[in-house]
Amino acid sequence: MPPAGRAVGPPIPPATNGPAWPAADLTAGPHPAGSPAGPVPMDPAAAEPFASQPTEPLRLIPASMPVQPSVVAAGQPPARRRKALSERKGLAIAAVVFGIAGLVASLVGLIGQARPRQLSAVQQQKIMAWEVASRWRTWPAGRIFPASARYPLTWTLFEANSRLIMSAHRAGIARQSTCAAALDSALARALDRHGCETVLRATFTDSTGSFVATVGVVIMHGKAPAVSSLPAGHKLAPGVRAVPFRGTLAARFGNRQRQMTGASAHGPYLILYTAGYADGRERDHVSSNPYASSEMTDLAAGLARDIGRPLGAAPPVPRCPGAPGC
Which long-range contacts does 145-149 make (Cβ < 8 Å, 24+ apart)? Predict the structure, then answer.
């Protein structure tokens, strides 16, 4: 209850925006010295009149309009934030594009590796030429010089148009020789100018045991020279030297027994041949005996053809290197 004789004002409502501070005791005197409360500081703005304080115009917001709080990153203006978001979005799109491009390039590379490699026409020709030229090294001697061969007779005693098939059998295969050792000197000198490398030789006898023939395969560094460019002889053209084999029908067949010589070209190989009698007779004028001359020529030329054709035959065209099924 207030003391008697004092006017009582209306009650002070409690503060709604802050704590309710206790009302100052006006009846009490000043705080005693050393009181913990001390003097209350005064706000400088409170001492100034209202007219001198800065004012802010009052904005009226309709009750029906919701207030949208502005979201602004702390310490970053809205325009700069939008620019940063746009840059990050562009970088993400670029990364996706480059990733897809890299994947496509990888797939193209894998497909290119899976597909067989295609060779150009020049590469195909080089591979084919190399394969033909290397056959004398890769093929066994028995494949180059077969154990037996068949050849036709172009002339018979019975009918001019008939062709009798004869057979020949291999007597032996000689060791690999130099061009100077396996060929007559005039022919060896001529072939040396064309790159003569080595000579392979073998001797055959016909099925009747009457004739003997030696066939030589001349290995050239490049293309075999034309047969027409080979040197000619007065009686017997320079050719391959005969190879006799002891214990066979060709035991007495030597250089002095050669009755004829000849040559044919098959790819890079020059095939030389010579023939004579198996009984050891020395060179005779076989032209006086047309049957013997024709049969010797058919034997030697038929052997050269059967040996030279497989060696010089074109191989299948390569499609791709190193893959089975190309």
Answer: 145/170, 145/173, 145/200, 145/202, 145/215, 145/307, 146/170, 146/306, 146/307, 149/204, 149/302, 149/303, 149/306, 149/307
Distance from C-alpha of 144 to C-alpha of 317, rounded to nearest angstrom: 22
Residues 302, 307, 311, 315, Cα dihedral to 10°: 60
pLDDT in tens, 110-126: 766 666 567 788 888 88
The structure tokens listed for 55 are 């004012």
Question: In angstroms, rounded to a whole number, what is the distance separating the alpha carbons of residues 52 and 56?
Answer: 13
Is 272 inside any structural domain?
yes
Q: What's the number of domains the chain is made of?
A: 1
Full-model pTM: 0.63
* 220 inside domain: yes
Domain membership flag for residue 299: yes
pLDDT score, position 291: 83
Give CB contacts under 8 A, 24+ apart, made by 148-153: 149/204, 149/302, 149/303, 149/306, 149/307, 150/302, 150/306, 151/298, 151/299, 151/301, 151/302, 151/303, 151/305, 151/306, 152/298, 152/302, 153/294, 153/295, 153/298
Contact (Cβ atoms closer than 8 angstroms) between residue 260 and residue 213 = no
DSSP 294: H
Range of the structural domain that residue 249 is part of: 126-312
Q: What is the pLDDT of residue 32?
A: 47
